[in-house]
Amino acid sequence: MATIIDGRNSAAELNATTARRVAQLKKKGIVPGIAVILVGDDPASVIYTRNKDRKAKKLGIRSILKRFPADARQAEVLATIQEFNNDDRINAILVQSPLPSQLDETTLVQAIDPAKDVDGFHPVNVGKLYGNEEGNYPIPCTPRGIMTMLSKYQVPIAGSNAVIIGRSNLVGKPMLSLLTNANATVTMLNHLTPNPQYYTQNADLLIVGVGQPNFIHAADVKKGATVIDVGINRNSSGHLVGDVDFEDVQKVAAKITPVPGGVGPMTIASLMEQTVDLAEWSE
Ligand SMILES: NC(=O)C1=CN([C@@H]2O[C@H](COP(=O)(O)OP(=O)(O)OC[C@H]3O[C@@H](n4cnc5c(N)ncnc54)[C@H](OP(=O)(O)O)[C@@H]3O)[C@@H](O)[C@H]2O)C=CC1
Ligand SMILES: Nc1nc(=O)c2c([nH]1)NC[C@@H]1CN(c3ccc(C(=O)N[C@@H](CCC(=O)O)C(=O)O)cc3)C=[N+]21
């Protein structure tokens, strides 16, 4: 049976450190602040923003949620981003995705001050990660949380064969940069990849971010592999499930993340960590 990589426990540990860092900043009169912009009422986004808001307040981080109706205009969202850019009490800004189709996500993300870009989506920060640059810059929170868990559970990365399924800007692409920078040999699959098992069966580290329940079974996985399930789906009975058939895959994997309780809680903890990073870097 596989070791379960416990995201809740890892998140609790990280949040304790973040709370101590917030307390240190408060002694200097600094309160970290995050602003989340949510347009419309995509159910997953509503849950995610509520969890973030709750966690931020618990850790002593100022949290502002700015909500717009689904028919919001580009100019008004843009104006709000400018306001947060100019607000000294806010050092982290996040525009929740997905956005309604009348809004241009690229333009909105590029309007965020790169020093306040807590999602690490601004092209300046994307470029720094891609270039493996030194120094302080934000990186996407889901991949960051995954790297933290891999390190905590001593999963070897350098010299490993890593396979990522999915190529989004939020998950797959930043994960590709982080693993490549850490000296893994990385293969990234998409929906047109012929014979995906050819890759997955040779993966020491398999990262799955597709958005389909039961996408990965034991037969797809190399014995002794580490499997990271990023997917968040509802199954036919309404329960939250990942992309990996957990019961089946845990028979062959050495280490595996569950859903819920895996990547999700670490994403939020990493977002809080990075909010405090940005506050410290801007001191
Ligand atoms: N736990 C967490 O913290 C987070 C969870 N998520 C979850 O992770 C999942 C992925 O999110 P996100 O990256 O934003 O989603 P996207 O929908 O943007 O991307 C999905 C990716 O999966 C690929 N894909 C779809 N079908 C196949 C297939 N049959 N074979 C190979 N690849 C395939 C797509 O390929 P192609 O590009 O070719 O279409 C695409 O690149 C979702 O379930 C989301 O809810 C997301 C972010 C954070
Ligand atoms: N700009 C932007 N940045 C994101 O990082 C981003 C986004 N948009 N859009 C949506 C996805 C999705 N996402 C999740 C984060 C935490 C949980 C999470 O906390 N999950 C818990 C369970 C939550 C529950 O029980 O409902 C778990 O997996 O255990 C889920 C999903 C971040 N995303």
UniProtKB/TrEMBL annotation:
Q: InterPro entries recorded for this chain?
A: Aminoacid_DH-like_N_sf, NAD(P)-bd_dom_sf, THF_DH/CycHdrlase, THF_DH/CycHdrlase_cat_dom, THF_DH/CycHdrlase_CS, THF_DH/CycHdrlase_NAD-bd_dom
Q: Which family does it belong to?
A: Belongs to the tetrahydrofolate dehydrogenase/cyclohydrolase family.
Its organism's taxonomic lineage begins at: Bacteria, Bacillati, Bacillota, Bacilli, Lactobacillales
Q: Which residues bind NADP(+)?
A: 166-168, 232
Please give the start and end residues of each transmembrane region: none
Q: Which PROSITE patterns match?
A: THF_DHG_CYH_2
Protein's UniProt name? Bifunctional protein FolD
Q: Which transformation does this protein catalyse, written as a reaction?
A: (6R)-5,10-methylene-5,6,7,8-tetrahydrofolate + NADP(+) = (6R)-5,10-methenyltetrahydrofolate + NADPH; (6R)-5,10-methenyltetrahydrofolate + H2O = (6R)-10-formyltetrahydrofolate + H(+)
